[in-house]
Design the sequence.
């Protein structure tokens, strides 16, 4: 997987004479079906748009505990596997559920495992209200007087990578994340488990297209920094990290999409010294996010 991307190319910076909003246009769908009273394609498009951010099913002890601790959305039910020692994190889950008057259902181990979606639910599943989607404009506003620090995932389709990236991002101080509505993993049970509770603390926006979102962030005063292995600048030399910034990480196979790369103000590489030519997307997020965090701390 090439999180940084295999392609090179010239970058444009702010003040370099290129408008950030150039070549923007509507993203038109091409559905084959036709619904009565709607233009061709509208029916299929509207069905896809009903798929939200997700997060209504949370599996794993740490993730369920953070869900209950955060208290930002309704928890409808906690399901546990019978026969467990209710100690440690599981004991905290049970205490929190009791305090919040969340119904707890105990199921035989075999039945519990049959309803689990992830490979290792750790004996606890929660059903909750879906995560709220935030507006891109809200994420670009300075939180509590600090310049925003965003993570943009450009076509990352592996839920485990999305969850691991969000966990790392939250630990590095990211104030918001941006996901594409299509061709991108959202907060599935696997992503929620890998995030280990980070989804409760990182507000997320889901946008129709990442390139247009990057252009909009530029209009809102946020610098966009894409990770690409072929970039001439090392991520350690970023000059905009202490400002309002969005780190853009590409998909597992191709890295940054062409249009997303063109819309980034800065493209930076994580220098590699080994035989392999790319990093896992979540690993690239970790290096990039903590490098931004280092710059912001020193300033």
Sequence:
């Amino acid at each position: 997987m090439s999180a940084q991307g295999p392609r090179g190319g010239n970058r444009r910076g702010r003040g370099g004479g290129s408008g950030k909003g150039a070549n923007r246009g509507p993203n038109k769908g091409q559905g084959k079906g036709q619904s009565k009273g709607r233009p061709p394609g509208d029916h299929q498009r509207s069905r896809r748009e009903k798929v939200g951010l997700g997060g209504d099913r949370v599996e794993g002890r740490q993730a369920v505990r953070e869900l209950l601790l955060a208290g930002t959305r309704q928890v409808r039910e906690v399901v546990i596997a019978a026969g467990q020692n209710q100690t440690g994190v599981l004991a905290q889950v049970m205490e929190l559920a009791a305090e919040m008057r969340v119904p707890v259902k105990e199921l035989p181990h075999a039945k519990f495992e049959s309803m689990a979606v992830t490979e290792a639910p750790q004996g606890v599943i929660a059903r909750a209200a879906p995560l709220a989607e935030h507006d891109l404009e809200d994420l670009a506003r300075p939180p509590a007087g600090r310049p925003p620090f965003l993570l943009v995932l450009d076509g990352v389709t592996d839920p485990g990578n999305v969850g691991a990236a969000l966990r790392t991002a939250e630990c590095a101080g990211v104030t918001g994340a941006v996901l594409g509505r299509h061709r991108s993993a959202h907060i599935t049970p696997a992503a929620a488990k890998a995030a280990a509770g980070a989804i409760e603390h990182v507000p997320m926006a889901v946008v129709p297209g990442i390139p247009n979102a990057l252009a909009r962030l530029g209009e809102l005063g946020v610098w966009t920094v894409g990770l690409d292995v072929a970039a001439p600048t090392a991520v350690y030399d970023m000059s905009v990290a202490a400002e309002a910034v969005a780190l853009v990480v590409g998909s597992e196979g191709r890295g940054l999409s062409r249009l997303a790369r063109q819309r980034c103000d800065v493209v930076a590489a994580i220098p590699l010294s080994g035989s392999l030519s790319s990093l896992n997307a979540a690993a690239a997020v970790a290096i990039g996010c903590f490098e931004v965090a280092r710059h912001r701390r020193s300033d």
Summary: The domain at 136-298 is CATH 3.40.1280.10 (Alpha/beta knot). The radius of gyration is 21 Å. The first strand starts at residue 57 and ends at 59. The CA atoms of residues 156 and 251 lie 4 Å apart.
